[in-house]
Structures are given as structure tokens and as C-alpha cells.
Amino acid sequence: MFTTADQFSAATKANFEQQLATLTSLTNKAFESVAQLVDLNVNAAKATLENSTAAAQQLLSVKDAQEFFSVSAAQSQPNAEKVLAYGRNLATIASTTQAEFTKAAEAQIAEASAKVTALVDDIAKNAPPGSEKAVAILKTAIDNANASYAQLTKNAKQAADTIEENLSKAAKQFTQAAEKGVKAAKK
Q1: CA 38, CA 42: separation in Å to the nearest integer?
Q2: Which of 92, 109, 111, 183 is nearest to 151 (CA)?
Q3: Number of domains making up the chain
Q4: Which candidate, 15, 8, 7, places its Cα nearest to that of 110?
Q5: Which residues does 145 contact at the CB level (< 8 Å), separation at least 6?
Q6: Cα separation, 165 vs 172, whole angstroms
Q7: Residue 149 belongs to domain spanning
Q8: Which of 30, 157, 165, 182 could lock onto 77 through a cystine, CB 3.0 to 4.6 A?
């Protein structure tokens, strides 16, 4: 019985250390992603300010209404492209972060599952006679938990794929609408 307590203690300590390492890694990745978002937003704000100033100067220099509409139409296409580029960069950051979080979580769960399975197998070897049913119930519970996690992971990946697909469709529709608007303004 003393050996089993030592095994649980060692397994608990190793699991805690692994969770702490994973948490640290995920926290670092979260900070990296936030830094990327801040850089993206600062660059977008600077570019918007510069473009707005240049656009205002161009519009102030027009001589008639037709030239005003022509300059306005010419400015709308680059702005639409910049919005799309911003959206793509934002989606890339989010997708990369989500993929790394998923990868880390999967690795953590796989390792913890392997450790628990090894511990249960070791306990089963040292279990007193007549405890086979209890060990079988424990193994079944672990197998069910692993199957549940596998299904949850599959559902999460499907949801992420659907979101990514919807973002791509929205970006495509926005691009088409912007192009139609530019063409209509040129006529």
C-alpha cells in the first residue's frame, strides 16, 4: 500500500510540473499574440492617419465635383485592400494562436493520459486478489474520458475550420463589393 501512495505522489508531482510548464508556455504564446495584435493595430493606426492626411490634401486640391468623385473613387480601392489585409493578418494571428493552444493541450492530455494509464497498469499488477473489477472499472473510466476528449477535440477543430471558412467567405464578399463600388464610381 505504501508503494501505491508513493506512486500517486510522484505521478501527481510530475503531472503538476507538466501542467505548470504547459501553462507557462501558453501564457508566453498569449503574450506573443497580444504583442502581435498591438503591433498590427499600431501599424494600422499609423497607416490610416497617414492615408487620411494624404486623402484630405488630395480632396482639398480638387477643382470641380467630377474631379472630387474621381479622386474619392481612386482612394476607395486601396482602403478596401488595406482593410482586407488587416483582416487577414488578424485572422492569421488568431488562427496561429488557436493552433498552438490546441497543439499544447493535445500534447498535455496525451502525456497525462499515458501517465495515468501506466499508473493504473502498475497498480493493477500490485493490486490484491479480488480487485480486478475495480481496476477494470477504473480503466473503463479512463478510456471513456479519453474517448470524450477525442470527440471534443474533433468538434473544436470542426468549429475552428468553420469559422476560418466563414472569415474567408466574408473577406471574398467584401472584396467583391469593394471592387464593384470602385467600378461604379469610375463610371
Answers
A1: 6
A2: 109
A3: 1
A4: 15
A5: 113
A6: 11
A7: 2-186
A8: 182
